[in-house]
Amino acid sequence: MRRLLFIAVLVALVVVGVLFGSINQQLADLHLLIISVQLRVVDIALIFLLLGVLLGLLIAMLYSLQRKAKGWLRKTADQR
């Protein structure tokens, strides 16, 4: 249930972003290390929002995996 609520909130944020993006058509330059692109301001905000969500999920999964695997090597060494 918690995951479903999280996904629903994330989808709602993306939909609101797309709605505001259809209203605001202002372009901005995005300078990266090797390229420079012109994107709408809302597209840049959406890209960084999604990158932040993905980074947060990755860190949460790594933390969860670390907690589940704690003591795993010790258990296999004790069985020998």
Folded structure, characterized:
Helices cover 72% and strands 12% of the residues. The protein is an alpha+beta fold and 80 residues long. It has a domain at 25-75. The relative contact order is 0.09. The model has no long low-confidence stretch (mean pLDDT 84). It comes from Rheinheimera nanhaiensis E407-8. Keywords: Membrane, Transmembrane, Transmembrane helix. This is Lipopolysaccharide assembly protein A domain-containing protein.
SSE run? HEEHH
Characterize the largest beta sheet: strand count, sense, and whether it forms a barrel.
Answer: 2 strands, antiparallel
The shape, in one word, is elongated
Number of strands: 2
Mean pLDDT across residues? 84
Per DSSP, the total helix count is 3
Task: Extract low-pLDDT stretches.
Answer: none
* Spatial order of strands in the largest sheet: 1-2
Q: Assign the structural class, choosing from mainly alpha, mainly beta, alpha/beta, alpha+beta, or little secondary structure.
A: alpha+beta
Strand content bin: 5-15%
Instruction: State Rg.
Output: 20 Å
**Proportion of helical residues:** over 70%
The termini sit apart by 42 Å
